[in-house]
Amino acid sequence: MDWYEDLNLWSGFSAVLFSPERERRAAEVVATSPLLAFPPGSRVLDQCCGVGVFTAPLAQQGYRTTGVDLHAELLDRAAVVCAEAKVEAAFVQADVREYVAPGAYDVVLNLYTSFGYFEDPEENLHVLRNAHASLAPGGRLIVDLLSKETYASWVGPPKIVDIPGGMVVMRDTILDDWSRYRTDWTMVRGNTAEHSSLTCYVYSATELRAMFEQAGFESVECFGDWDARPYDGGANRLIVRGTRARTA
Ligand SMILES: C[S@@+](CC[C@H](N)C(=O)[O-])C[C@H]1O[C@@H](n2cnc3c(N)ncnc32)[C@H](O)[C@@H]1O
């Protein structure tokens, strides 16, 4: 089993990954970010939506939102979050390497470092190609992740995050001359410790921009955070946006 297929990783570490603080921050970002302001009623696909941290606030804005994820259990949680917020969203259990809905969306989002998971670089590019094929002409893809440049500014000693009833120790290791990284997570609760690790590609802005262009996107732009600041020394994240051409 590849690491991303392990539901225990996503649900076991959900206190960190899908925390109430993240939900609060995502709702704020969706409500205020100029990068996430789309025409009313836009059809939005949330690739790798997890438990709907972004899906629910997007639906709340009135966008016709669909979340896709590999894990049915996470989608079930996302559906509950939407029901509690009294908003509607569609959910599809699928692998992003396979999910394509030709021309069905105005916007495709891939958020919170949900990209670069596959060992074969072609498969990561294929995710961008699927997004391109799923967009209507003029539609946009936005990918948000920790880039090589932003990662370099904070990778170092292990970090400890408090969670209800315990803590998670996170240690990052850079691999293959900065092509990839491994994150090792240990969750300690009482006398028990659980360990998981994930390995992911890490891209520079130039590398991800080139992949967008290879996948067919035009007008590719990079931003340094959700306030649409430039991707420069003050960047906190890498957000890349590309457009599907209006004419073939
Ligand atoms: C870091 S989480 C981010 C979830 C969500 N975007 C958020 O902001 O909370 C990554 C998600 O990718 C999903 N995932 C991993 N591999 C996948 C695949 N091959 N196809 C679809 N989803 C996948 C996981 O189940 C997980 O929910």
Description of the structure:
Helices cover 29% and strands 32% of the residues. α5 (72-84) links the parallel β2 (64-69) and β3 (90-93). The termini are far apart. Strands 3-2-1-4-5-11-10 form a seven-stranded mixed sheet, sandwiched between helices. It has a four-stranded antiparallel sheet with strand order 6-7-8-9, with no helix packed on it. The chain is globular, with a radius of gyration of 18 Å. It has 248 residues and is of the alpha/beta class. It has two domains: 3-147 and 202-243, Rossmann fold; 151-199. The chain has helices at 7-12, 14-17, 20-32, 55-60, 72-84, 121-134, 148-152, 205-214, and strands at 43-47, 64-69, 90-93, 105-110, 135-145, 159-163, 166-175, 180-189, 192-201, 218-223, 238-243. The protein is built from eight helices and eleven strands. The structure holds S-adenosylmethionine (SAM). The site of S-adenosylmethionine has 21 residues, from loops.
